[in-house]
Amino acid sequence: MTQPVAVLVDGDNISGKNGAAILGISKEHGDPIVVRAYLDAQRASDWHGAIGYRLVHAGSGKNASDILLAIDAMDLVHAKTATRFIIASSDGDFTHLAVRLRELGAKVIGVGEAKAPHMFRASCSSFVELGAKPTVKLVPKAQSGIADMDLKIRAMIAEHSKKGAGMRIADLAPRMHVAYGIKISTLPEKTWRSYLNARPALFDLDPRGPDAMVRFRPEGFAAVA
Fold this sequence. Notes:
It is built from seven helices and ten strands. By secondary structure, the protein is α/β, with parallel strands linked by helices.
């Protein structure tokens, strides 16, 4: 099932010339059902000509756009309107918002320029840097030595995945126990979600839920393919 995506742009920080690129990125992650750019709409801006965006006038106060964007993001995640968020800004102030959204089970894709600070990049599930041609999604590199257990997980997902949708995380525990005698509770991570989340270069997870799926990243296992 296609995931609902909220696209929230710091229009005072990111140029409207990037509007089409940001929308293109959002469509790679699901269906962009909320698409907003926050800015002082009374000022001249490229965002006035951006197609597909709802402009949200935040006023001229200090950090007004940042605050309103953060409020709307929390409203959307609590209402379960979106499970994935595109936060477009090069401002490190959104680090805390990204962390909080992920704690609530959402996937956060940061989008920004080369000047975007490391703290904001690291707080997102993934980060896409604008300005390069073509725009390149930065994916964490896999370790050169992939653990035998990760190879077993990949094989299990491949066996039970249909059309690349992955397999239910809830099904992973009993199947890994039956097939390999592995009990995740005996490992430092204690839960399968924690184990998989700690390996973002190898696995991609849905937000929390009874039917949440996990998929393996082919590029992460390329060295052993």
